[in-house]
Amino acid sequence: MPRIVSVGAAQLGPIALKESRAEVVERLVALMRQAKGHGCDLVVFPELALTTFFPRWYFEHQEEIDAFFERQMPGHDTRKLFDTARELGIGFYLGYAELVEQEGRLRRFNTSILVDKAGSIVGKYRKIHLPGHHEHEPWRAFQHLEKRYFERGDLGFPVYRAFGGLMGMAICNDRRWPETYRVMGLQGVEMVLLGYNTPVHNPPAPEHDALSNFHNSLVMQSGAYQNGTWVVGVAKAGREEGVDQIGNSIIVAPSGEIVAACSTLGDELAIARCDLDLTRSYKSTTFNFARHREPDQYRMIVER
Ligand code: ING
């Protein structure tokens, strides 16, 4: 019996600064219902999918920043996502800003969760590769203050048994680093889920702007192929508070082929029936890590 996971890449268009959590949740629920109508088992939402991408601004006061964070998950406005998951029998990946008291102090993470068809949280990930800068840099057309607003994730790159296979999570910039996929690949991951907010313009390297979509698919296609895993990458797209963000949400097979893609910059579902057993031929031959990898030759990767 093939292990098919029918996945909906649930791309979001812009979320305005003034848009409430309740209004955003309505958009997410609409995409969940649409996905269910197409027989999806799982929908993948973007990174920080409940609010506008607030690291684009410098905020003086912590309480302004904390307004973008969730203190509970599910909380008052997000409970509807979990209720809908249970009502429809569909799971979801959700990116959000997590504020939690841990070891006696407040911690802030760029977080994603994996929720199953019963509406239970089966996995959590906290973003490890935080791009951008820590201090206000007024020279930039817009800021990218993830290093200021979030701590580095402290959960590693875990892989969870769910939806009939081994599921992993990443967030945005993580997808650009081969180590992200390899650490999960070494745990046998069969599907990596990730959301992103990627401005077209990268202030320190404007010469890369024209290649934003190419780099987006390049890193996910290579991560998929080199680890024999499915990769689902989902954008918060469009012109959000004056900043153009790429769309290009895609579902990538273990072969590295793109099997589904969004073609707009708005709320859009791209769907694929993903056979998890397509990972086998790569994991057992070309990328049979036990047979072909030479880790004693790779020490520089972790020692530098
Ligand atoms: N955004 C961007 C990303 O990695 C970035 C930051 C853009 C890095 C362009 C390099 C080039 O897609 C987030 N949120 O990580």
UniProtKB/TrEMBL annotation:
Single GO MF descriptor: hydrolase activity, acting on carbon-nitrogen (but not peptide) bonds, in linear amides
InterPro entries, sorted: Aliph_Amidase/BUP (IPR050345), C-N_Hydrolase (IPR003010), C-N_Hydrolase_sf (IPR036526)
Keyword Hydrolase included in the entry's annotation: yes
Top-rank taxon: Bacteria
Gene3D superfamilies: Carbon-nitrogen hydrolase
Pfam annotation, one family: CN_hydrolase
Keywords: Hydrolase
Domain CN hydrolase: 5-278
Keyword Coiled coil: no
Protein name: N-carbamoyl-D-amino-acid hydrolase
Organism whose genome encodes this protein: Zeimonas arvi
